[in-house]
Design a protein that fits this description.
Low-confidence stretches: 56-62
Radius of gyration: 17 Å
CATH topology: Porin
Number of strands: 9
Order of helices and strands: EEEEHEEHHEEE
Structural class: mainly beta
Distance between the termini: 27 Å
């Protein structure tokens, strides 16, 4: 679930999905480094204010629903509280996917003009299965149309994973 703050979008979280991969690297008994690569997609409804704010920039009537596709790179530090539970925290870099670029070209933009966020949550380790919950708060402005307002994201993630 994700929402973007600002008067251009309807208030509240929108459902979406994400998929990707992760690696768990042990750093002693209690710590793990967990880099990830995630693709996510969420659809947003624009508010009535969107047309008023951006009427001189583009034809906003054609943008009733806006689809945000992102490629994210979280780097989580896990602290094992128990054998089955770890607390997570770390930075996340994300870029909005451009359909006119390849996956590698999009990934190259992550650190130059992407979104920077911080993430925190918990992970349950049940054998080879992982169940995680995470809150991600965007620290960068996503608005590329102008400086009329800031768009900052907030995300709640629930994930299921399997370790090979």
């Amino acid at each position: 679930m994700q929402k973007i703050g600002g008067q251009s979008f309807k208030d509240g979280y929108q459902l979406g999905y994400y998929a990707g991969g992760f690696v768990e690297m042990n750093l002693g008994k209690r710590f793990q480094l967990q880099p990830e690569v995630l693709f996510s997609e969420t659809k947003y409804d624009q508010s009535n204010d969107f047309r008023d704010l951006y009427k001189n920039i583009l034809s906003v009537d054609s943008l009733r629903k806006i689809k945000l596709q992102q490629l994210s790179f979280p780097i989580m530090l896990n602290f094992k509280v128990a054998n089955v539970l770890a607390l997570q925290a770390g930075p996340q870099f994300a870029i909005n996917m451009d359909k006119n670029k390849s996956l590698l070209q999009n990934a190259g933009d992550a650190f130059s003009d992407g979104e920077f966020a911080m993430a925190a949550g918990a992970k349950f380790m049940l054998g080879k299965f992982r169940v995680s919950g995470r809150y991600v708060i965007g620290l960068s402005d996503l608005n590329q149309l102008g400086k009329e307002e800031e768009w900052r994201s907030q995300t709640l993630q629930l994930g299921l994973g399997f370790v090979f």
